[in-house]
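Q: Hi! First time asking for a complex rather than a single chain. Here are the components, and I think there are two in total. Is that enough to go on?
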Amino acid sequence: MANSVDFNLSPIMELELESLREDDTAQDSMCQLIRVTGTGLESGSPETLEMEVLTTEGRDRMASQMSDVRERADERRLQRSEESMQTDLLVRNRWSAATLRVLSSMPSRSVGQQSRLEIISQCNIRSTQLRRYHRQNQDVSLSSRPRIRGYGIEADSEDVCEEETKRQELVINLQSLSAGDRVRMMRATPLSLAEKTKLRKLAFSDKVGQSLLSSQVPCCSLLKRALYHVLFGCLFILSSLQLWQVALKRLGGRFGTGVLSYFLFLRTLLLFNVFLFLINSLFLVLPQAIHPPLHTPSSHRVTGLELFTGTGYLSNSLMFYGYYTNSTINTSCRPDEATAGTGCGTTSDPHMMAYNIPLAYFFTIGITFFITGIVLVYSMSKSFGRSFRVFKSQGNLAIKVFSSWDFKVSKKMSVRLQSENITTQLKELLSEVNGGEEEKGRLSGMALHLLAWSISLGSTFFCALGIHCFAKHMHLRRLEDAEGEVSLVHEARLLALPGVVSCGNLLLPGLFNLVSWMENYNSPIVRLYVSIFRNLLLKVSILGVLCYHWLGKIAAEPEQHGLQCWESFVGQELYRFLLMDFIFTVLYTVFGEYIWKLFSQGVLRRRRKPVFDIARNVLELIYGQTLTWLGVLFTPLLPAVQIIKLLLLFYMKKSSLLVNCQASRKLWRASQMSTLFISLLCFPSFLGTSVSVIYTMWTIKPSSGCGPFRNLPFMFHSGKQWAQELKSTNPKLAWLNWVHSCLVENPLFLFLMAGVFLMVIYVNTQVLDGQRKIISLLQEQMENEGKDKKFLITRLQAIHEERQRPLSPSSRPQPQGSEV
Amino acid sequence: MGTTASQLGKDLLSEYQRFSELLSKEDRNLTSVPMEKVLSLPELKSNPFRKRICHVFSTSDMKDGSLTFEDFLDLLSAFSDSATLEIKSHYAFRIFDFDDDGTLDGGDLEKLVNCLTGETEDSRLTPEEMRQLISNILEESDIDKDGTVNLSEFQHVISRSPDFVSSFKIVL
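A: Yes, that's all I need. Here is the structure of the assembled complex.
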């Protein structure tokens, strides 16, 4: 009558977990969870019990297929009333000794007190899994029905022999793995140092192992890793880790990750500009500086204003496009000849190397943009991968509680600050999670939103229109001025347009803030996104209008605007814009933040200092970077200006922050925000600038009086000419020309690339969908397993109690003694 | 400690120096440093989890939290840069398990939150908030709904957090 409890999961249900990628830690932990939960029912109970009805029921449930999971859920709902009674039993404290013994020996609970045996067994299992995965790497069978593979953790006994055999097994398993995997597996096991040394001596006893013992890794994986690092990491991450480390730590500790993300973004931009500057100066500026071109020295009065307007003696310097020659430099000239200003003539020296400046210009700018684009897209995808979770969860509280304590903090003051920060964040999160939504009047809310949007869009439109008209007016004024004599006032008028644009950039976000305060959004995240969108729209429209002006009007008819060299003019304009932007930022920081702090503390008597507006500042940074990228074609040294500006900005913002502002109390999802910033940098900013640069190079006629592309119909013709020359002089490289004509001039290639790109995205989204479905199924299954566990434990307890009751003659079962 | 010192690699010298500084005033024959001395390390002095850290890494039979040099190395290794997420989450779980029963139940979570929010009275959460917080945490992380967070569930929660590895670090 009595059946022994026998839950054998492995032949009945198996989950094909190999369809999920093995090295994803989230899914790894999910596998672990299933294993542990599933086998929790396998632990042998020291007493056998009668559970006939239960066993058959249990077996049926276990044996049902995944498609019946939903059916089971319905079944469960019927038994909910029974369960609620049972859950009361579960939280009771008066467990019997037997139940307690069972509970404490469950694998899911004994994991925390893992003996060495347990850890070794788990390591065993993992290495077996790894080995199996590598062997079965080729055929990944995507079965439609997931199955659970029960890995059967045996009940641990404290037998020393058992431990020894387990250890031997582990050593054998480790030896069968590849060397790199072995090292990684050893690293990932939480054993004590003594244990690991023992294991290492045993496992790495062969020759390959000996080399590993001296911490060398096999050369091919080292090479792979080195290549990987060099390509993407070296340029970007390694160098960025060292700069400003202490300052950033201090800021992050005091103000939190939100503000820190702004400064990290600033550092990223700095690195981009350093890269641009280095490449430009190496290939473009330096050769031209060593061999300056011949031109008539112009007499300009040296006034301080040139630094701001970029005119005067600066206009004929290395800064701007007009300086660069369109000839080929021959490097056989001696330096003293060059400085004499006579330039280098062509000699018949056979060892001379020719350096073609127009070609260098074209290729340098093109290649820097290309590399910047690749690095941006790569970092954006990495950022996305980090912040995007396949397994969506409802809230962040558990993560916050478990992982927010920074163990590096050691000063008492910082520890206290950190505690305060965590307390406020937890309180905010709690109120956000549990706060109910107030039911406002729908209609009035809609009307308010409509009003707010119309105000912001209207102000953006009028701002753009105003700038357009003002720019036209300023050009007319400039034409008039140019006919007269050059005076200081006329030069200063050049600064009017940048000043107006910067004013608009400064004031309108304030208006947007006011409008959104009036709107009173429920969720701070929505408010943030809306404000970012509005600011972005403003900047995009301003830049669009300006680009239309420069590239559409001025570049098309330079004579009408009285310009000899329109590229230099555009370069100077961008230089002026960058400078004015910086000046206005300084003014805003000094007056806006500092004086506002005095005002709010003195006059309004508010105890809290103002909060650093992260979104607005980040958009300012993106705007500045967009200007730099736009101007690099016309002003090769503009990245240097941007570098200086960013350095000064860092220190200024840091000191302003420490003096004026305080930490925000709002939750700031740092990783999602940095993803947003990088994608904003990539998509509107970089894409827009690369489109305009390509447009300039491909369709606009360069001015005939200055610059390296003087006599060419279009800028890219320099590359074309060179390719044709190459074909005639060096027939071996003729294929390059063919490649060039196929790829660059043929639009089909671009369409193909775009098609491939879209397909890759589509495939990835489908895979993601599938993974999500599997995860939700697994979650449901785990819940059900947990319910089974609860059910069995309470039945265990209930039956035990029944047996203890001395006066119940009818229902006393005969205990069968089959020991496990 | 003579035997360990003679087998010491060059890279462990600085750690050994720090460790032996703790013993300088005491009897040189002792192989393990008592807990009070370990807690006087500047890196651990203000850490609210310092006592738990000592208990977790201590292998002494008397369960008094004293650390031998090897325990000290284990501690540094677990908190170092090169420890994997698995190791860190394993030890974090043990540190947060205040009653050492292998799971994080309501009592453990309450003590954990109190450690996080600080010693002073006004920085602590009210009992109502605490109750709500604990029930929210259990709702989010307890997947098998048994009322406690076991190691696997803990590791699953941690794997979703990108900041854990960088914050679970102690540098000497």
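A: Chain B has two domains: 10-79, 85-169. Let me know if you'd like any chain examined more closely.
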